[in-house]
Write a structure and sequence with these properties.
It is a single chain. By secondary structure, the chain is an alpha/beta fold. It has a domain at 1-187: 2-Layer Sandwich (Double Stranded RNA Binding Domain), CATH 3.30.160.150. 46% of the residues lie in helices and 18% in strands. It has eleven helices and nine strands. The chain has helices at residues 3-20, 80-94, 164-187, 194-206, 213-222, 229-235, 241-253, 260-267, 276-291, 295-309, 315-328; strands at 25-27, 47-53, 63-64, 70-73, 76-77, 99-101, 107-119, 127-139, 142-154. Strands 2, 3, 6, 7, 8 and 9 form a six-stranded mixed beta sheet that branches. The chain has a three-stranded mixed beta sheet with strand order 1-4-5, with no helix packed on it. Strand 8 and strand 9 (142-154) form a beta hairpin. Helix 2 (80-94) crosses helix 3, helix 5 (213-222) runs parallel beside helix 7 (241-253) and helix 7 (241-253) runs parallel beside helix 9 (276-291).
């Protein structure tokens, strides 16, 4: 037996053992706040935000899936609403927007869904999580539906500790940052500077194979700066999966309504890699743009997307239906 066969045998045995030894509880880190500050000439008066638990499924586990997946932070179970409130407010403050927890008389962030789920098919498959958010930002001017959807996967080789950072810490951090970005878009309209956008683009282009480069792509979407849209369009053709997925998602976050046709083509498999992951992210972005008032995007997600995924049983199709629910149903 040569060395390669011996190595593969050992690796296979290790993965099989890991499948049976997955922990039932994982300790996650506090999300780190963004280092990119919005326009320093932004609001000076502290704005109050009230986070409200509006979940119909509040009785179901926050984290679930084929493998047990309880989440703790600093030794206590993660309570999703207070988690979102604490770290979303911290994210906004870090980006230069003075906010604090408010009373019922302040603007409300109504949380309708917040979930993290794991998906694992056999010992050799990746441990994958989908992280979902649906919320309404309620102001005297009306209600604005916002959502977030993250997919991350990692094959654990030596320890299940390897999955915590990519499949739990990073998605939860990104959901917090996306919610903060959308609160900013609806309430404050602040933007990251052109210089910071260019710095993000340069960092992505300089080292796209870096496994964390996709995080900078998401930051372009959170920037609320139109100068980021063109580079995001280019990145939808990236050969690096997570950069590509992040760029597709970011086009919705930044409300790139002029690129609905591109997102439709990605969903139909006419552009990009044609993978289900890409198609799901295109649905998410089309929903972002639709709920911001784009009639073309709304008609497509309500008619074409629902018809296309209605009878599909693939995991991606199920995720696409779930994304529609985040945005289009109460």
């Amino acid at each position: 037996m040569n060395r390669q066969i011996i190595w593969l045998t050992i690796l296979g045995a290790s993965l099989t053992l890991l499948q049976g030894c997955a922990p039932s509880v994982y300790a996650v880190d506090a999300p780190e706040a963004s280092s990119y500050v919005f326009d320093p000439s932004g609001p000076e008066t502290t704005y109050q935000l009230s986070f409200v638990d509006a979940r119909e499924d509040a009785y179901t586990p926050f984290s679930s899936g084929p493998l047990p997946m309880g989440l703790t932070i600093e030794g206590a179970d993660v309570e999703p609403i207070s988690f979102l409130e604490e770290f979303t407010l911290a994210e906004l403050v870090a980006r230069g927007i003075p906010v604090s927890a408010g009373s019922e008389d302040s603007a409300e962030v109504q949380i309708h869904k917040i979930k993290i789920r794991n998906h694992r098919m056999g010992a050799f498959g990746p441990f994958t999580t989908t992280t979902l958010l649906s919320a309404n930002i309620v102001t005297p001017a009306g209600e604005n539906r916002v959502g977030a959807f993250m997919v991350r996967g990692k094959v654990p080789v030596w320890s299940f500790d390897e999955v915590i950072e990519p499949t739990m810490n990073q998605p939860l951090e990104l959901v917090v940052q996306e919610l903060a970005a959308k609160i900013n878009m609806h309430l404050f309209q602040q933007a990251t500077s052109d210089a910071d956008v260019q710095q993000l683009i340069s960092s992505i282009n300089a080292n796209p194979e870096d496994g964390l480069a996709y995080l900078a792509v998401f930051q372009l979407g959170f920037s609320n700066n139109p100068s980021a849209i063109g580079p995001l369009v280019e990145l939808t053709n990236s050969p690096y999966e997570y950069i590509r997925l992040a760029s597709i998602s970011a086009l919705g976050t930044i409300n790139a309504s002029e690129h609905v046709d591109l997102l439709v083509a990605i969903f139909r498999g006419e552009r990009g890699a044609g993978h289900w992951q890409d198609r799901v992210m295109a649905v998410k972005s089309l929903c972002d743009i639709a709920v911001m008032g784009n009639d073309q995007a709304m008609a497509f997600v309500r008619n074409d997307v629902e018809a296309a995924v209605g009878g599909e049983t693939a995991a991606g199709a199920q995720w696409a239906r779930e994304v529609l629910g985040l945005y289009l149903r109460n």
